[in-house]
Amino acid sequence: MIEAWNAADVRAAEAPLLEAGEPLMERASFALAMQVLADLRARRRHLRGARVVLLVGAGNNGGDALHAGGVLARRGLAVTAVLVSERAHTGGLAALRSAGGRVVELFADPARTAAVAADAASADVVLDGMVGIGARGALRGPAADLVTALTDARGGRRGSGARVVAVDLPSGIGADDGTVDGPVLPADRTVTFGAAKPGLLLPPAAHLVGELTVVDIGLSLEGAPALRRLEAVDVGRAWPVPGPTDQKYSRGVVGLVAGTSTYPGAAVLSASAAVRAGAGMVRYRGPGAVGHAVLAARPEVVAAPGRVQSWVVGPGVPPSDEDDGQHGRGGGGLAAARGDLGGMSQGATPAVVDAGGLSLLEPPCPPWFVLTPHAGELETLLRRHGEDVHRRDVEAAPLRWARRAHELTGATVLLKGGVTVVVGPSGAYAQADAPAWLSTAGAGDVLAGLLGAMLAARSAEVVERPGLAAEIAAAAALVHGRAAERANPGGPVAALDVADALPATVASLVAQA
Ligand SMILES: NC(=O)C1=CN([C@@H]2O[C@H](COP(=O)(O)OP(=O)(O)OC[C@H]3O[C@@H](n4cnc5c(N)ncnc54)[C@H](OP(=O)(O)O)[C@@H]3O)[C@@H](O)[C@H]2O)[C@H](O)CC1
Ligand SMILES: [K+]
């Protein structure tokens, strides 16, 4: 698991060590230099003569870059520091100069910005040390102009020309929330110190981070992290592997209310995913015609009422005001679920509430209800609660708005996207496991069925431990993303292929743990 800590927590953990004279900057900058060397060795035979350009701001982030530059210059690399502020870390500057590094005072001669950017773009490595956790707002002044010019010089493409290594974080991102309010240089790698910061894991900034390296500089961080990211081993270890005394009921029955004659496929996809993820049983509770399609695809499904350990409500169901009565006619499935949903607040059955199911909610909800909106659906949900918010606001600050939805409803919220953000009562998760190919019709229905199976398997525990639903939802996002990758590595993937890849994905996660 990757744990991310807010800037204030990192500073609080640094303070006593700095007071005690611990050489934190030396540790950080040395590790940074070693990472740069390792990356260079992977790309060229000889290090001598490799060109490194440091983009250096006024604070300690610039200090890290300058000290690392000093280490690299002593190894024979040609290092140039570009100062974007008239202030620069004194010790770092001295270290670089004494190691033979060159210094360009860009702040004093902004007309050179384009030429400096062109030079940096053709270097082997650019170290982005303009601001770190001390940034206030979007990059401004010479730093902003240089990033714009350098982005132009690289043709806007990561991976072309110089390899960009961000020092602690890509300069200008919101360290705590991942917001991007101005120009930011996309990094190929980010070397962060002490602990990951939430902004490195959260979109939109997460897309600018590249490979993430966390350097231990000896901080002891107390309390709970601001954000977590599960890794494969966490999910494999927690997977509900059946034992010899288990039977289908103890493994968990998923009740599925999904699909209409307009969207029967959603029910097929959710049911397939729940079955393929190892549900003990799937009960389909929806319109009869859709039930036939579900049974034709998955003969394991039972289309009869009975007890369930989790509900999946809403895939392929339009919002309640547009539901042309199909669910009322179709065995009363949705109406029953509506009653069950109400009852579940006391009766305690975990539920995945997706798509049209979201319009059925009557908060307050328990944390074992997991809402699975995408950004547009979250906008609708938040606006229903009086928030003046648009989809683009949700996309610009997903953690903030997922958290708001959790506060307003009480439910656990899984916000779907290229990075999936989950917020529950015990904290937040950001999962980046899915290939971009997974943004395809029906992928959300598969996630809902998969999550339903995972909640059913640990139903009682989910109700007892308020934070567990969020952890399981984050795990479902990981499995979903991995299954998409496994279904067709590096290429297009259809939703049903993802469901079909679940058994092998789960087996490999369990085997690796
Ligand atoms: N303390 C240590 O020994 C360690 C620190 N580490 C590194 O330090 C940074 C945090 O350093 P800090 O000096 O607190 O802040 P920054 O370097 O991030 O930036 C602050 C200066 O940047 C200028 N600034 C602020 N906002 C902007 C902006 N939007 N655009 C341009 N410039 C900005 C500001 O200067 P002014 O003159 O404008 O006021 C600040 O002075 C941390 O990220 C680590 O890299 C290491 O972890 C090791 C231990
Ligand atoms: K930086």
UniProtKB/TrEMBL annotation:
Residues 231-509 form the YjeF C-terminal domain. Its cofactor is K(+); Mg(2+). (6S)-NADPHX binds at residues 60-64, 132-138, 168, 266, 316, 374, 445. Its EC number is 4.2.1.136, 5.1.99.6. Residues 10-225 form the YjeF N-terminal domain. It comes from the Bacteria. Gene3D superfamilies: 3.40.1190.20, YjeF N-terminal domain. The keyword Phosphoprotein does not apply. Keywords: ATP-binding, Isomerase, Lyase, Metal-binding, Multifunctional enzyme, NAD, NADP, Nucleotide-binding, Potassium. K(+) binds at residues 61, 128, 171. Residues 315-335 are annotated as: Disordered. It catalyses: (6S)-NADHX + ADP = AMP + phosphate + NADH + H(+); (6R)-NADHX = (6S)-NADHX; (6S)-NADPHX + ADP = AMP + phosphate + NADPH + H(+); (6R)-NADPHX = (6S)-NADPHX. In the C-terminal section; belongs to the NnrD/CARKD family. Belongs to the NnrD/CARKD family. Homotetramer. PANTHER family: ATP-DEPENDENT (S)-NAD(P)H-HYDRATE DEHYDRATASE, ATP-DEPENDENT (S)-NAD(P)H-HYDRATE DEHYDRATASE FAMILY MEMBER. This is Bifunctional NAD(P)H-hydrate repair enzyme. The gene is nnrD.
